[in-house]
Amino acid sequence: MTNGTAAPPRSLPEREAARLQRRLERRRRLALAVLWWEALWPALWPPLGVLGVGIAIALAGLPPMLPGGWHLALLLLFLAAFGWAAWRGFAGFRAPDPAQAERRLERQSGLQHRPLAALADRPATGDSDPASLALWRAHQARAAAALRTLRIGPPRPGLAARDPHALRAALLLSLIAAFTIAGSEAPERLRRALIPHLSGPVTAPPAMRLEAWITPPGYTGAPPVFLDPAGGAATVPAGSKLQIALSGGPAGGGVPELVRSAGTGGEPFRALDSSRSSFAAEAILESGGSFAVHRDGRMLATWSLAVQADAPPRVAFQEPPARAQRGLGLRIPWRAEDDWGVVGLRAEIRLRARPDAPPHVIELPLPSPSVKEARGAVSPDLSAHPWAGLEVEIRLVARDGAGQEGVSETAGTTLPERSFNHPVARELIALRKGLSLDPTARVAARDGLDRITAAPERFEDDDATFLALRAARHRLMRDRRPEAVDEVQAILWEVALALEEGRTDRTARALAQAREALRQALEQAERERREAEEQARRGEPQTEEQRQAEQQRRAELDRRIQELRDAIRRHLEALAERLQRENNEALPFDPQQRLMDQRDMDRRTQRMREAAREGRTEDVERELAELEEMLRALEEGRVARQQDPNRQRQRQRGQQQMGAIQDMVRREGEMLDRSEQRFGQEDQRRAQERRNNPFARSPFAPPSPFQRQPQQQPQQQQGRRDQSPEDRAEAQRDARTQRALRRALGELMQQFGDLTGEVPESLGRADQAMREADEALRSGRDPRPHQRQAIRELQEGGRQMAQQLQRQFGMAMDGEEDGDPQDQAGDMQPGGEGRDQAQQQGPGRDPLGRRTREGPSGLDDGSDTRVPDEAELLRARRLQDELRRRGAQKERPPSELDYIDRLLKQF
């Protein structure tokens, strides 16, 4: 082949070739201009930086303050520095050429095999071989087609690599400040800076000043230790940095030295300026000893420093690892501590039969990024791991900020495994275990797969299962990579699950995983949104990295929503297939609730995606909750269709009324939160006044004979507070909402009476409390007592409604056919936490929900005691961490910090 200038191939039409040639020339010129900029800007930066420093010094008015000789020397030094910087900047300058421009176009466009060069190449055989010539022209046509998407890319001069500390930004700020200070005198100051005077005042040398401090390593979190200039002693962590600064003193003095111990040579300080009046020294403290500063044969200061070695972290098991009491998790209780803080903790699991195999590593979460002492327990589910059911050895590894690692003793256990009832699934799991124990036993695994596939009637002649097993068999024998064994084990696990669960259970599990993934993404988005609000409240601008992270978060939410949509579609298809297979009927359609309308599902997921793109996470959570409610109703559809239609309608009405009560409790709680925010600051102010003057309102303070007693205010004026216009407007809005809730409660009481023939008395008391709260909101008084009373009565009314519905219709909330009415009313609580909250109110209980002797039996039989599960404990721990994070932000209002402190006292 021959090379030349890139040109379109002759096989292209003339017009298209000309257009392509003009496009190539234009792109090549732009790419060459970008290359010139990338080459010139780094070369111009050093002289421009020196020039900027000189202008800043001149605008500050410093050169005229120097003696004439020093002023002249400063100008010569500046000129020399400018020339040296220009020489240094252009020392390695190379002018770019067109060939480099073509390479840039290919690189930025992601083109391979240099298509621009291919356009200019010519076959070495010439035109003698028509077949080769036609093939070559086809190759050139393909290369020309690839050039239609040429991109130049933004210039990247790489100045950040040459200026890693961003001194250009500091220089720009200095110039702006200098021009601002100089103002209209800027031209005159520049002129005086360029004209030195050969006479000037001589100032006395400044007094000598010695400063010394020790900076501990960053991972310790310890503050700097400032040393006494007269000398002293200190104990610091190993790896600390000793820094000493010396300035002033007589002119012409010697260079100071840092002497580590008596009788040894010293290390000279480095000069910080050309006048050699300021010096600095640094030393890393790896061992203790005495450190002294000497200058001109005189000791200026001495310190005795002791170095505390950093010990490796200590980690151990609190108790031997074992299977969790519930589920298939492996409970690993741990304890770790370090003198400066543990930053990482992991568990390494090794197969006892193959100790040389790579370990399975599990990263264990820590309470904080760096904790000196911590305890905890994790229960990872390893039932799907190839080592499940085999004996393993576990050890804990802790890491501190210095990179040191501490290892615990090894503990042995057996990984929990899932039990399979299908005989073929059990055989597949046995083959999977055999490959884990001996990956080289491929022949035995092949024979086992051949025995299984030889009798397809054992797995209902399922074609998908047969093909998967045969694919695993051939991959096991033909693919000799070590990773092939892991891939075959994954196939065997999926086939075993499919045989054991069926498609419906698999899709239901995938749907649950998609919902949980979306919920976690929403929680992460909500945390980042709160952090952004805090940053905006502090007046900090949003950085480019934060904007990119926000875009990535929205893209992640969109992807999770799409995955949920696909999982719902697959689950609906699986349910339809199961119904047709078992009952020979199609999936029912509810014309009233529209539970199975796929278009409605699509509209909901589309609204979720739009809300995620716009950052409205609350709308996404609401749509997700409605989707989950529809899916729950769908799961109950088969049982519901077998019941009497009239009874089913009554149950549905009861569920709707219970949901209305739950919504009322939530709305009343929101209004109570707003009332707490409005009146909380006033309460804090009055509490502060009482603390400052404890006898101001004390009932034991004797009345002063000279103090005029205030007249009693009318009853309707008590409890009034001075409020801002915004608070009054918000109170009026809450009053309107309160009246609407009261009207809705009246309609609900009438409907429930028509349904059951009896209305709980607690709902009547809730109506009275709402009326009093409405009056308080309209008159500007404190509505919180009445709102709390309304919430308590609504909760009690929900409990009584659940009991009546259970007695008359045998219905249980949340799909439980035979549930406890206490459990059913638990969902009517503001937090929806079930029985433990539902039983906090009612006769025979104190305000904390504990039984009293005035109850029906007078004794507490403990029948309502329930131990929270791990999910509830994890949720409570997350709430506690969030409250502690907000409580540590001291810039929040005092009323909010006090409210958070009261909440933390409950944990």
Structural description of this entry:
Helices cover 52% and strands 13% of the residues. It contains 24 helices and 18 strands. The strands form three sheets. Strands 11, 12, 13, 14, 15, 16, 17 and 18 form an eight-stranded antiparallel β-sheet that branches. Strands 2-1-4-8-7 form a five-stranded antiparallel β-sheet, with no helix packed on it. It has a five-stranded mixed β-sheet with strand order 3-10-9-5-6, with no helix packed on it. A hairpin with a 6-residue loop joins strand 7 and strand 8.
Question: What does this entry show, briefly?
Answer:
Helices cover 52% and strands 13% of the residues. With 907 residues, the protein is α+β, with helices and mostly antiparallel strands. The radius of gyration is 39 Å and the shape is extended.
